[in-house]
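ok posting inputs for the 2'-monophosphoadenosine-5'-diphosphate job
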Amino acid sequence: MSGIGAMRLKPTHQEEDAMITRQIGQSGISVNAIGLGCMGLSEFYGPATETAEAIALLQGAVDAGVNHFDTAQLYGMGANERLLGEAFKDRRDRVVIATKFGPTRDRETGALTGVDGSEDNMRAAIEESLRFLQTDHVDIYYLHRMDQSRPIEETVGAMAKLVAEGKVRALGLSEASAETLKRANAVHPISALQSEYSLFSRDIEDGPLPAVREIGATLVAYSPLGRGFLTGRFTRENRPQNDYRSGAYQPRYGDEAYEANLALVEEVKTIAEALKASPAQVALAWVLGRGEHVVTIPGTTKRSNLDGNLGAAGLTITSAQIARLEGLAARVRGARYPETGMRNINV
Ligand code: ATR
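and the output
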């Protein structure tokens, strides 16, 4: 394990050295390679974290050396951005804030209704995000899913205006294909692709990830822990309940796939034991080992898990262990999302 105690407020010098700093494309923005995905504080993985507790987690993360915080208009329909606003309003210069727009929701039911990459929608979204985040600029602004009803050039052209106006520092796309990434990059430099990437999800290696390298961008790997699967926290008896992993939204957690995928996690656990590390640390160290053009944003609502995850920066995995880990993805059962969600992936 990392040896970073949950109760400690400040990292020691030795632990600070274990932090890895990487660049977000050619934007000039540097981040701690292990940032924080904030979605779970507001929805999807069970009930929202109580506000004071969530703010304490976010502020504690900054004290622990994290500077990359990822949110979206979608998460909690503004509630997640509001948390970041409250937490960081008096320490804005110490954090890199990334947010996203595009997907639309029914304000009453929360149901996803589509993706709107129009300039009108973008302008409404950025103004709301800036207000909720209590800031005058967003560091990384993403199109969260591609709007397949209009050319990417139109949306990125509009996003580029936000850079010119000083409201946004760098642009990103989430779950875009290699071709979309390159077309977008021809309009304005795309600094980041944010896509799912983990020991369980390596499909982007077929196109998007090489394209990230080619255009000089950075991959921001989300769900690096397989939405919790790769941490070893789930068992046959202890399945996620009352959150979106327990329904039809996450095929890998469904009845058809769950136990087969649990068996794969056992292999991660075995390697973790040999390294005296946690399975989560092994999963994160593998992602970071893919190269300087990759950073990650594991999600957690708990300080103890955050501290453990940061310890992955100091972990070295042998090439024999890497070879064993790399066999896992092809054996994972179930798609990343149900069919409707997959239609918006790598497009
Ligand atoms: P996402 O990017 O969608 O947030 P992820 O980073 O792959 O997904 O995984 C997030 C999940 O892993 C959350 O359910 C988180 O739960 P907590 O809020 O309870 O921490 C869980 N998780 C993160 N780090 C963990 C750790 N070190 N040990 C156990 N569970 C962890």
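notes: Residues 37, 39-40, 45, 222-228, 231, 233, 280, 298-302, 305, 308-309 surround 2'-monophosphoadenosine-5'-diphosphate (CB under 6 Å). Residues 175 and 195 are 5 Å apart (CA to CA).
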